[in-house]
Task: structure prediction
Amino acid sequence: MNIFNNIYKNKKVLLTGDTGFKGSWLAVWLNELGAEVFGYALPPQREEDNFVKCNLTNIIHHLDGDIRDLNKLKDYFEEVQPEFVFHLAAQPLVLESYKNPHYTFETNIMGTVNFFEAVRNTKSIKAAVNITSDKCYHNNEWVWGYRENDPMGGKDPYSASKGCSELITNAYLNSYFTTHTDCFIASARAGNVIGGGDWAENRIVPDFFRALKKGQSLIIRNPEATRPWQHVLEPLSGYLNLAAKLYKDGNKYSGSWNFGPLDQANHSVSTLVNEIIRYLGKGQAIIDPVSEKPHEANLLKLDISKAVQKLNWKPVLDFNETVEFTVNGYVDEEKSDTYDKRKNQIEAYTKLANQRNIEWSH
Result:
């Protein structure tokens, strides 16, 4: 299915954070779209990481590098001369941000500055997308979804750093990328992304599968916390669609965008875990009895009306399908041809989009 009008075919696309969970999946998808993919990131942390399991070292171009190293990053951009760039390099964990706030702020704030400095000094770039988080919003724990023009905020270092990353994006947009420019920029805010290949610490789905491997029960910190769960391919389709629109129509699509599930896909942590156990047919979970825990939002939802109406984007999978794609992704890792399994999931996902008359980039 020609979902992005072949816009990425034979184009140079550079990703920061390609060794991470979302970055590695995006690298696979772009490679399948015919792009020449370049990555800049820290080395993978573990053997089971998606980047390693998919053997991306031998499939795409990759340079080990720290997003905090401005000169190295700028030199790589200058060497590659990409047309599309996606910024995914980050310290992505709330609990880790409590342990290492300085590293979190330095990586997520100055990393964003370094990214846009590299972008504005590389004349080949036509579209740049900064990937942030739904946690960038000042969270009032209300029942309706946050819209792109709601205030930024954050009660923990991670959330605050992502709010800052959004403010930085807006500052660069208005200072350098509105007039007399051939490059157009945007930011993308996604919900809680799940899928095979994520083995980060202190995330509910990786923690479940780690516990399962050890024959242990998953310990749930906040069972009633509600999140906009979405399979990794959902926001990636949004990022790819957004960058394609920036490339074709420029400033019309600059700015910030939410990519999340439909309202009915917002479920509690316990509901997600129970559905995974039901679908997989094994596994156990217990509630953490500790009363003193680091602050985490209990209720968080995104309003995706802007992306639905202006990008013609919408989610493909319902909640049950999201769980099925996720569980199957972890099961696929037990086989030797992980890259092919990821490719198959992308093909199955785009086939469902076609069947449901979703034409993201037309």
